[in-house]
Design goal:
Blueprint: E1 8-15, H1 19-27, H2 29-32, E2 42-48, E3 55-61, E4 67-78, E5 82-87, E6 94-103, E7 106-114, H3 118-146
Antiparallel strand pairs: 1-7, 2-3, 3-4, 4-5, 5-6, 6-7
């Protein structure tokens, strides 16, 4: 997965786990809620219907205060390869999560956020790029704890 326009924010990380494990930590809502979001956040997943046209509705609970309602519609699901959705709540963007096996024990996971304009992408880049890194840190940690 590559960044192809200035409207996109691309983040990726090599995770020390097989692709089926990394994908399962996304595809299984009970596992997903343990790592999704920046450091310190917890999640309540209200709906997670992982198929094209399916809904993903969750509340992200901030570490100090605040509940952040999120809703999206899945647009593409290719197990162990790609999950894409369109956000219906602010901030609006399309998201693609890519999974690529590098070998039997390492997986490249990529987040591509696609914004409506270059300006919106630039405005969000400063915030979301470091938060995506926190998300990857959490994913690696919960996978390691689970093995």
């Amino acid at each position: 997965m590559e960044q192809s326009t200035d409207r996109e924010v691309l983040s990726s990380r090599v995770i020390d786990a097989p692709i089926n494990v990394v994908y399962n930590f996304f595809a299984n809502a009970e596992l997903l809620k343990t790592w999704w979001g920046p450091e310190g956040f917890t999640n309540t997943i209200h709906e997670f219907d992982l198929k094209p046209g399916g809904k993903w509705i969750l509340t992200m609970h901030g570490p100090e205060k605040g509940n952040y309602e999120n809703s999206a519609i899945f647009t593409k699901v290719v197990p162990n390869r790609l999950v894409a959705w369109t956000r219906l709540s602010q901030p609006l963007f399309d998201m693609e999560v890519g999974f690529e096996a590098l070998d039997d024990d390492q997986t490249l996971i990529s987040f591509k956020m696609i914004f409506a304009s270059v300006e919106e992408g630039e405005k969000m880049r400063k915030f979301v790029a470091p938060k995506n890194e926190e998300n990857f840190d959490r994913l690696q940690r919960v996978i390691k704890e689970g093995s």
